[in-house]
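lol forgot to send this yesterday, sorry. struct tokens for the thing we talked abt
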């Protein structure tokens, strides 16, 4: 008579998991150095993978600089009042340009100035003690972000006319708008179609229907015979010119405002008219790529 074997509960659960594992486990399509890998569905028939890669240049649509007003007074309160008073006129003039065009941030920094004396050998000694403070230097920093290139030179002239203690050289950057990004992606798709047509014509074949459109371009870069993930180098970009509804990007930085800026306060307006500055936003390169896979038809 055979005895029945009773497995512990943990062993029973482990055995069930091992039996069920093949049904639920998902293995990756391949690994590096694997000789054979399963082909994706779109490679069952002859195909051509075309990588669209485009490049254009767009002027910067953001500019930043800061104007600093420093004042030294016996007390920190007096220095703060004097420094903010100096920055007030410029702040009002720039704010009048419109908050959608110019964004302003004011900050204050306070530095104590200590009693100093020289020793017999000429060494300068500074008494850095709280009871030896002679005066305070307060600097009002007016940070300016210009979001409309049409008022950039005007804003900078006003800052110079305000006679700050120091003023920064403007720095530029580009924040592409959604419309420009969409246009550039569309150009990449068209570039992929153009390359596919040229390749099939040169090979004596005919272009079939679209099988895959990959905005990331990763499908075109995958080396099917090397295993996942292995990628080829990028193809050279095709230069495209911004045109049509996107033409405004080629001439000036994008702006959300169309009405002219209001005049600044009369005091600074006259002084600013005598300041001659030229600030032309630099051009920034933008690229986009897209992969389009077409079927191939036999020569006909």
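and heres what i got for the seq, position by position
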């Amino acid at each position: 008579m055979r005895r029945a074997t009773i497995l512990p509960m943990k062993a029973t659960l482990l055995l069930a998991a091992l039996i069920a594992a093949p049904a639920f486990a998902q293995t990756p399509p391949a690994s590096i150095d694997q000789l054979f890998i399963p082909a994706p569905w779109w490679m069952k028939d002859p195909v051509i993978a075309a990588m669209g890669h485009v490049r254009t240049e767009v002027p910067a649509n953001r500019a930043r600089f800061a104007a600093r007003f420093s004042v030294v007074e016996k007390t920190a309160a007096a220095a703060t009042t004097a420094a903010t008073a100096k920055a007030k006129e410029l702040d009002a003039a720039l704010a009048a340009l419109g908050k959608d065009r110019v964004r302003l941030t004011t900050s204050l920094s306070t530095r104590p100035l200590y009693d100093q004396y020289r020793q017999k050998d000429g060494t300068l000694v500074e008494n850095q003690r709280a009871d030896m403070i002679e005066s305070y230097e307060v600097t009002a920093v007016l940070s300016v972000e210009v979001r409309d290139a049409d008022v950039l030179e005007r804003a900078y002239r006003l800052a110079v006319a305000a006679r700050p203690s120091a003023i920064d050289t403007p720095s530029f950057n580009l924040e592409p708008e959604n419309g420009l990004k969409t246009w550039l992606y569309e150009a990449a798709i068209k570039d992929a179609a153009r390359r596919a047509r040229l390749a099939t014509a040169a090979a004596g074949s005919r272009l079939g229907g679209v099988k895959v459109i990959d905005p990331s371009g990763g499908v075109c870069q995958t080396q099917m015979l090397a295993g996942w993930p292995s990628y080829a180098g990028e193809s050279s970009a095709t230069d495209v010119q911004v045109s049509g509804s996107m033409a405004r990007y080629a001439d000036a930085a994008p702006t959300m405002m169309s009405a002219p800026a209001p005049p600044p306060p009369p005091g600074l307006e006259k002084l600013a008219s005598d300041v001659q500055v030229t600030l032309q936003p630099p051009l920034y390169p933008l690229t986009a790529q897209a992969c389009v896979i077409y079927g191939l038809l036999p020569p006909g």
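Residues 1-27, 225-233, 249-259 have pLDDT under 50 and may be disordered. anyway ping me if u want another try
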